[in-house]
Amino acid sequence: MPPGSENPISGSPTGYFEESSIGIGIICCLRLDIVVMATTSLFNLLHGSQNGQHFDWGSRLNVACGTAEALAFMHAELQDDGIAHGNLKSSNILFTKDMEVCVSEYGLMVVDDGSKNSSAFNLDVYTFGVILLELLTGKPVQSNGLDLAQWVNSVVKEEWTGEVFDKKLVVEGANEERMVALLQIALKCINGSPDGRPSIGQVAAMIVSLKEEDERSMVSSEPGFER
Fold it and tell me: Within 13 Å and on the Cβ side, how many CA atoms surround 152?
């Protein structure tokens, strides 16, 4: 199905072309009835002024899930055409006023992850892994994410995993087990061997499962909940 056509699957992402000052890209959103009017980006939420908005663990997991599902949809639709995102980063993950996730600038350029024999789709998985690291650490990215990936790998290697996570998440009391689970998914994505990385569809399935587990945990911890 080409970008711009109607998606018959209710609730699935939809892609369409967007004219901008930098060329023609694709925005992919998770709802068919959405009107894209971006109010902020993931970069601004993590590293800019939040205007008092609390970006908690549940919100970050929702962003990870929504972005993965949108990207997985676009990969599936455009695989045969060889069109990957090519430049996924926190500044082109946008949000509407209702905090719906929209992935912008799809297919505009390709970023190198420093490895050889990477396909454009493998590169998308790598850069998505870097975004997961941003969500978990709260740290900004430089050098196409190579710096953040190297830092996280070095900390994990020294078995100081707890030092990876954003102190705001720790203070909030976010579940460390599920943060570690998302970190493990991120590490799979930034595997130095492109062939060792999962597909974005597999990544999305893992994050959806983690999000469902997180939601079940929240329900079971509510006062008055009985099994």
Answer: 31
Angle at 110 between CA 126 and CA 15, to 5 degrees: 85
> What is the SS3 assignment for 91?
helix
pLDDT of 51-90, one tens digit each? Answer: 546 789 999 999 999 999 999 999 999 888 888 999 899 9
DSSP state of 183: H
Using the 8-state DSSP alphabet, how is residue 52 labeled?
T
CB 185 within 8 A of CB 132: yes
In tens, the pLDDT along 90-101 reads 999 988 877 888
Q: Are 105 and 146 in contact (CB under 8 A)?
A: no
- The class of domain 14-219 in CATH terms is mainly alpha
Domain residues of the chain, as ranges? 14-219
Choose between 51 and 131: higher pLDDT. Answer: 131
DSSP state of 37: -
What is the residue type of 19? E
Tokens of 6: 């109607």
Find where tokens 């998770």 sit.
Answer: 30
Encoded tokens for 144: 């196409």
Least confident of 156-165, 177-186, 192-201: 156-165
Q: How far apart, in whole angstroms, are the C-alpha atoms of residue 140 and residue 138?
A: 7
